[in-house]
């Protein structure tokens, strides 16, 4: 028997989007606002284009509306404040996108281990900054959202299949394609895809849909502001997808009835497809699809040099 699922539209709703100061998450925030959805933009700071969005949608007498909540997503108390600030301003929230992430910077990288020059992962820290941002923050934000929806502090109705809510995560093709250059990043995105699939039954039982997009090469500051990452892209062959293409896929994951909980939707240049749980063929390596960086193999020499560097991998 086919399970009934209530239709879901973002219009008239409120969304929390972390990492909304730039890139994919800013594009998603703008798309939501264009569909009459209030948005709480969350980040450490806003690029000028994100501040312009706040300025355009800050009028308390109009809807939709956008506010900025400055948040260090690696801090659990800060994440709690993010939800409290949203409820204080809007009364409730319906969509959460814990989208903030980083792509294996030197300051928290497998190839720059704790205690090595440039690493901010201290020897006695007991955790990696990259995993705090890319993995622990999405997990904790999802837990907090579920807690608020199941046991609302205000007079709002409890979440249920007839009163659905949404969580949309950002995974990556790195969850499918191993990349020696970025092991921590790949591990974090593999875990996000796994988390989403584990939480799939929540849509049927409680009305909470948890989905993810898995972007390929997306032209955002994460790439364009990092020459050390750009060198692995073949600029003559590799196509780029846009943040707007990913945002559209995210909206589909939130609204489309067919994209049920546990869906991971791959996104490339003019391309989307559902990633299978088992037997998936993997991303199409055609350069025109914008999914795979075709010079990534050149990073092996960089890794080899780092492994031979006693200052990086010597005894601690």
Give a description of the structure:
By secondary structure, this protein is of the alpha/beta class. It has one domain (14-313): Rossmann fold. 36% of the residues lie in helices and 13% in strands. It has helices at residues 23-34, 48-56, 76-90, 129-150, 183-198, 202-206, 221-224, 227-230, 243-255, 299-307, 310-313; strands at 14-18, 38-43, 66-70, 95-97, 165-170, 208-215, 264-268, 271-274. An eight-stranded mixed sheet has the order 3-2-1-4-5-6-7-8, with helices on both faces. The termini are far apart. The mean pLDDT is 93.
Separate helix tally: 11
CATH class group: Alpha Beta
What is the averaged pLDDT score?
93
| Contiguous runs where pLDDT drops below 50 for at least 5 residues | none
DSSP summary, beta strand count:
8
Bulk shape: globular
Major sheet size, sense and barrel closure: 8 strands, mixed
**Structural class estimated from helices and strands:** alpha/beta
Organism: Pseudomassariella vexata
GO molecular function, one term: oxidoreductase activity
Keywords: NADP, Oxidoreductase
Family: Belongs to the short-chain dehydrogenases/reductases (SDR) family.
């Amino acid at each position: 028997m086919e399970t009934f699922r209530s239709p879901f539209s973002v219009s008239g709703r409120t969304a929390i989007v972390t990492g909304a100061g730039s890139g994919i998450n800013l594009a998603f925030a703008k798309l939501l606002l264009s569909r009459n959805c209030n948005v709480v933009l969350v980040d450490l700071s806003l690029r000028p284009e994100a501040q312009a969005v706040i300025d355009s949608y800050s009028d308390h007498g109009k809807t939709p509306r956008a506010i900025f909540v400055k948040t260090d997503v690696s801090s659990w108390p800060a994440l709690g404040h993010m939800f409290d600030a949203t409820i204080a301003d809007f009364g409730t929230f319906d969509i959460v996108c814990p989208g903030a992430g980083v792509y294996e910077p030197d300051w928290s990288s497998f190839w720059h281990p704790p205690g090595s020059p440039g690493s901010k992962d201290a020897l006695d820290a007991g955790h990696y900054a990259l995993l705090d941002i890319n993995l622990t923050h999405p997990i904790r934000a999802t837990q907090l959202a579920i807690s608020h929806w199941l046991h609302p502090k205000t007079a709002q109705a409890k979440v249920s299949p007839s009163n659905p809510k949404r969580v949309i995560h950002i995974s990556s093709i790195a969850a499918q394609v191993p990349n020696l250059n970025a092991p921590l990043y790949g591990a974090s995105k593999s875990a996000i895809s796994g988390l989403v699939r584990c939480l799939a039954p929540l849509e049927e039982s409680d009305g909470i849909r948890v989905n993810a997009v898995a972007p390929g090469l997306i032209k955002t500051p994460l790439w364009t502001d990092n020459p050390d990452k750009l060198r692995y892209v073949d600029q003559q062959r590799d196509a780029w997808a846009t943040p707007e293409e990913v945002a559209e896929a995210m909206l589909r994951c939130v609204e489309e009835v067919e994209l049920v909980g546990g869906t991971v939707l791959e996104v490339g240049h003019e391309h989307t497809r559902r990633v299978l749980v088992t037997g998936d063929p993997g991303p199409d390596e055609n350069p025109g699809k914008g999914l795979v960086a075709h010079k990534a193999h050149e990073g092996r020499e960089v890794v080899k040099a780092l492994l031979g560097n006693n200052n990086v991998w010597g005894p601690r």
